[in-house]
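Hey, sorry to bother you again with one of my protein questions. A protein chain has come my way and I'm curious about its shape. I'm sending you its amino acid sequence along with the backbone structure tokens. I owe you a coffee for this, so here goes:
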Amino acid sequence: MDQEPTPARPAAPGHLPAGSTSVTPTAVAKVAAVAASAVRGVHALGTGAPRAFGALREAVAHGAVPGVAAEVGTTQAAVDIVLTAEFGRPLYDLADDVRAAVHDAVEHQTGLQVIEVNVEVADVHVPGLHAEHPAAEQP
């Protein structure tokens, strides 16, 4: 007795099939990194030598997110950002703008409630000033 398969029925409007969704700390950190990097006055994320945005793109593509850490629960997330600022931008204003950008991006893209975004300004990039020759050591 041959029977044709019953076609799959789409879920009724307003009714979704059962299942669960989880968002990893890595996913949250990547969303936060992109949002923070887009803020005017952020020179780079993280500290140390590999602070260029090209290094950020490379790291994000491979799963590491320099300068960004995220903690994720079932419905909430917290994000820590360490950055290098461009000289000339008030640091507290920059931190506020980064905090707002990260908060909005993470909530919008992940659906998680962001309970805190901590921003640490670890360094200031001054064009023409090399880390190897601090001003205190110059004659």
About this structure: The CA atoms of residues 15 and 52 lie 46 Å apart. The first strand starts at residue 42 and ends at 45. The chain has three helices and four strands. The radius of gyration is 21 Å.
